[in-house]
Design brief:
- The chain has 5 helices and no strands.
- It is mostly helical.
Length: 129
């Protein structure tokens, strides 16, 4: 997420116009979202059993915070994937660059929120033992 927000998006915005930039972003996000979906599956497959081993209450508060933040992050991604992402794909396919840009801006905002939540989750598990 950090790479997309901090490096890729600004570089594309500086050098490419929407008719070239938005189709590239769609291709990048299509591949990136596969990685995100696999990562979510792996996090759930490994994290839930670990949290259950602690039997809930004895687990450190940071673990609970991290798990809760993780659920919020997954829900945000679900919204991003099924709403602005699908709409951005349709806008780019129709070459509606203003609409595509609108949906890309919403995706960027949601990615920034998720990136921040990820750092908060890491801080919670490290600092709240």
């Amino acid at each position: 997420m950090a790479f997309a927000v901090i490096a890729l998006r600004p570089a594309l915005a500086e050098h490419w116009l929407p008719p070239q930039r938005l189709p590239l972003v769609v291709q990048v996000l299509r591949r990136f979202f596969v990685v995100v979906i696999v990562s979510i599956a792996l996090l759930l497959a490994s994290g839930v059993p670990l949290l259950l081993q602690a039997r809930g209450a004895p687990a450190p508060h940071g673990w609970h915070a991290m798990a809760g933040i993780g659920v919020v992050m997954m829900l945000l991604f679900g919204h991003l994937f099924f709403s602005p992402w699908k709409r951005m794909q349709r806008a780019v396919a129709a070459q509606d660059w203003p609409q595509g840009g609108k949906w890309m801006a919403q995706i960027v905002l949601l990615v920034k929120i998720n990136l921040t939540l990820g750092w908060v989750a890491i801080a919670a598990v490290l600092l709240w033992r």
